[in-house]
Amino acid sequence: MKSHEFSREELEHVAGEFCIPVIARTGPDCRGRVAFHELGENLTLAHAHWGGPLSVVRTDRMAARASANNLVVFCVYMAGRGRVRQHDRVAELAPGIGVLAEARSRYERVSATNTRRMSLRFSRELLPLRTAEITEACARSVDPAVPAMQMLSGYLGQLFEVANNLTAPQRQDAGHAAIDLLTMALRDVTPSVPGGDGPEGVLLEMMRTHVREHLGDPDLRVEELARRHHVSIRHAYTMFERIGTTPGAYLREQRLLAAQAMLSDPRCDRLTISSVAAAVGFRDLSTFERAFRRLYGTTPAGWRRAYRRS
């Protein structure tokens, strides 16, 4: 086992070394420690903890780089709360929860508390699931009450404790056994993947694109989205079930994601919070602030201040 204590300035290096390369923002007093075992080629088990609020993002440009885009990370959270976003889905983080993320797509994580987690990082080809199934499994909370998740959590904890006493071939076998248990756990939460895009898949993508391109339109609601695409409201809900969400939740999350980006952008510093809310389609400031706090754990003004300090 190897271990490393890190400061705020070293956080991005540590994330790239033991998890997924990201851009990190945190408070000035953030410190942490990571300990890890190399179980085999492109297979690492790490235990990490850090203090204070943290925001990380893997941008679209970073995700397009070939150097790390084959990596997948499954994290089991033992302490702390926050949220992970990937593929237009948001997974709530809490003790016992497991969450999968892939490096080939944009990824965001926000935590407002001290956090402790165990992570299994490996090449996606080691996971015996189709590409679409892996993508569908990302950013979905694996319930700690699920038997397969209980087995996986216990196994990872025990493996971390005894890995030093195993030979290299035994560590590799143990790592592959962990991936087999992970496969079982993911099949409990992953919805069935539609076979091919088909007309429904094309229409769903058109609706998602329309949402992203018209976030500033305050009249864009579920009813209006359905009307503009000539489908019933009920059918719109059915289509968005394919990606594990609802039309309203997707619209709200995209608006809040755009607002977060504006509040993090120095070029938007002169915009008031009300102007940011209006720019992403919120008519009412208090509604915007409540929704933002619910998703990111702080107010829009608090997010802007924290991001500037970091």
UniProtKB/TrEMBL annotation:
Organism: Pseudonocardia xinjiangensis
Domain HTH araC/xylS-type per the UniProt entry, residue ranges: 205-306
Source superkingdom: Bacteria
Gene3D superfamilies attached to this UniProt entry: Homeodomain-like
PROSITE patterns membership: HTH_ARAC_FAMILY_1, HTH_ARAC_FAMILY_2
Keyword Magnesium: no
Record keywords, A-Z: DNA-binding, Transcription, Transcription regulation
SUPFAM superfamilies: Homeodomain-like
InterPro entries: AraC-bd_2, AraC_XylS_family_regulators, Homeodomain-like_sf, HTH_AraC, HTH_AraC-typ_CS, Tscrpt_reg_AraC-type_HTH
Protein known as: Helix-turn-helix domain-containing protein
